Amino acid sequence: MNTPIKSPLGAWSALSLVLLLPFAAIAAEMSGHHLDLSHHWVGYVSLAIFVIAYAVVMVEEVTHLRKSKPVVLAAGLIWALIAWVYNQHGMGHVAEEAVRHNILEYAELFLFLLAAMAYINAMDERNVFNALRGWLVAKGFTYRQLFWITGFLAFFISPVADNLTTALLMGAVILAVGKDSPQFVALAFINLVVAANAGGAFSPFGDITTLMVWQKGVVQFHEFFDLFVPSLVNFVVPAAIMHFAIPKSNPKKLDEHIQLKRGALAVVVLFFVTIAMAVSFHNFLSMPPVLGMMTGLSLLMFYGYYLKVTGEKEVIECVTTEGTKTEVVHPVTFDIFNKIARAEWDTLLFFFGVILAVGGLGTIGYLDSVSHLIYDQWGALWANVSVGILSSLVDNIPVMFAVLTMMPDMSHGDWLLVTLTAGVGGSLLSIGSAAGVALMGQSKGMYTFMSHLKWTPVVALGYAASILAHLWINADLFRIPAGG
User: Which of 414, 448, 403 is nearest to 429 (CA)?
Assistant: First the structure.
């Protein structure tokens, strides 16, 4: 249990005093393996560093500074301050063990995401997503039909892919057929954000937060499906209301057919095999899911070798300077390492910074204080509802990582509730999730923060309905102790 470094004054008055005193003059008590630095100047400075770094992340669209840069720097500075204090007390090894624990958590998440991203990029390169888009565009559906079709596809694709990839895929369909109706695009994009986030909430693969919960062992793989109905309610309730604002007319039919590349379906099958391996390693062998994902990635690597040695050629039509047309045939190489290189490295490094920085604040002692405030005083229900609302303003990844680091004593139903709220809470605002931010950039001004905010009360109605649905349908889970 953490023991505070004592100060003769209160929290804020202590800050001004401690900054003026030499370190040796600070009274400190140690018990167990950790120091409580939450009222120490190092704690205040670390908290300020994290807030400033995250403020820089939130204005990424304005500054065009990659979000990984400030949080990676913040993580390094925070842990340097922690290590300095611990070394002053002859406890440098304790800080080292703490940071190694955080790095191990990140390493599992990093390798898992790297394997998943490699498969997603491989399917993209094999035209799997483009073929789906071309099929939808060529069918000539009405605006209202497209509204529901893209919504349901997003809801059922995001549990397998991720909410960002799903939103961008369906967003391309909506822009292709609805470019002449800004009203349709705005509403359909709001629907995509809600559907993609809701679909990702009932699967370990649908969102980073659900993956973190699964890898932590708090919720088992099959238990995520207890959230299927609440997630569906979260999507359907606002969609049913927005339906009446969708134009009744038909968009112009487009003829677009995209051919799958050789081996596309095999890559899809291997992806599902890889997911099954991750689940099996965890459930039957008591091994981390990442080991199954990396084993599955090796299957894709071998299949890429097969495509390479069996040969693949592409014919390109060229026009010479004389105006004559010629066809140039050249080999196409399926290189798995190119697919890995296309992974979103800024996102992966952002996760590193967030996990290490939040882990540092936890080591300082802030997460214990927050846990006591919201979970002990507010109760698990309102605390978890608040987590979802906070996720609409701050990225849900640090919020969920903070909850997992605090590990409050909750029923299984409450752990599922915070998984749900952290996943779908980001739909309340366009900036609340990666899907919303990406679609704002993709929409060419037709989907904006204000256009989403106009429908936030409707989205909030779906948020509340999903919570009530979970409390009703999974009522028996709230009587089961955590880990029971």
Answer: 448
